[in-house]
Write a structure and sequence with these properties.
The protein is an alpha+beta fold. It has helices at about 1-75, 80-95, 130-140, 185-195, 200-205; strands at about 100-110, 145-150, 150, 160, 165-170, 170-175, 175-180, 210-220. The strands form 2 sheets. It has a 5-stranded antiparallel beta sheet with strand order 3-2-7-1-8. It has a 3-stranded antiparallel beta sheet with strand order 4-5-6, covered by helices on one side. A hairpin with a 2-residue loop joins strand 5 and strand 6 (about 170-175).
């Protein structure tokens, strides 16, 4: 009887082992199938992406060829010289390169006249608007490049009073102020010295101004940063009284 029980026990263990083995085998196969399917899915996605990129490449390639042909036409065609001239002109006005040529040198100094107790002390010293008057006048007379005490004027240049000094390109400068400008010397001198013009106006308040025509002078390149939160032109309302 005991032998029969042991035999049944062994058969039961064998049967359970067989069932567990089948379950583990099925689970293992399912896991492998899932991993295999995930690999196939990912491979298919990558293949689709490659196909999409190839389509985009096929579309962009002709556009790139056309753009290269257009660039070559511009660099060698009839407009090449015009484009080059415009680029050189833009370089001049941007102030990123030094320039040499004929022009004028304007020197401004504070008044040397004896001051009376009743005189306004502000009349005898140079203000930012005085420099702006000169700059505006020579600009209107065709100045191609301007510098003040070696500071090149560009589109972002600000000219403002800063206590006893005048700030130009964020540099505090003091008199005398030497303004150099490249352009037609005769035209610029005539504009400054015309009757009722800038020179006469400043001399009325005692400011010393001299204008010298030069056959050759050099305007330095702008050395500051071209980044600015505000673009301030070197202009002012010159109709305001001193």
């Amino acid at each position: 009887m005991n032998a029969l029980r042991m035999k049944n026990f062994y058969w039961s263990v064998a049967l359970v082992s067989l069932v567990v083995g089948v379950i583990l085998s099925v689970q293992f196969r399912m896991t492998n199938d899932m991993q295999h399917n995930e690999t196939i899915r990912r491979t298919q996605e990558l293949a689709d992406q490659v196909a999409q990129l190839k389509k985009e490449h096929d579309v962009l390639q002709p556009q790139l060829i056309r753009m290269r042909e257009q660039l070559e036409d511009l660099s060698t065609g009839p407009l090449a010289s015009q484009i080059k001239a415009e680029m050189e002109l833009a370089t001049i006005f941007s102030g990123i390169t030094k320039l040499s040529g004929s022009g004028v040198e304007v020197t401004l100094k504070d008044s040397n006249a004896s001051q009376k107790p009743t005189d306004n002390p502000n009349w005898d010293i140079i203000h930012a608007e005085d420099i702006l008057r000169v700059v505006n006048e020579i600009k209107a007379a065709g100045a191609e490049a301007i510098a003040i005490n070696g500071q090149r004027l560009v589109a972002t240049t600000e000219i403002s009073c800063s206590g006893p000094a005048i700030r130009i390109n964020k540099n505090a400068l003091v008199p005398p102020f030497v303004i150099t400008a490249i352009g037609n010397p005769e035209t610029m001198e005539g504009a400054l010295k015309m009757r009722g013009g800038v020179a006469e106006f400043l001399q009325f308040f005692g400011i010393q101004i001299s204008v010298k025509k030069l056959e050759q002078l050099t305007i330095p390149a702008y050395s500051g940063s071209i980044k600015s939160d505000y673009l301030i032109e070197a202009v002012a309302d010159t109709s305001l009284a001193r």
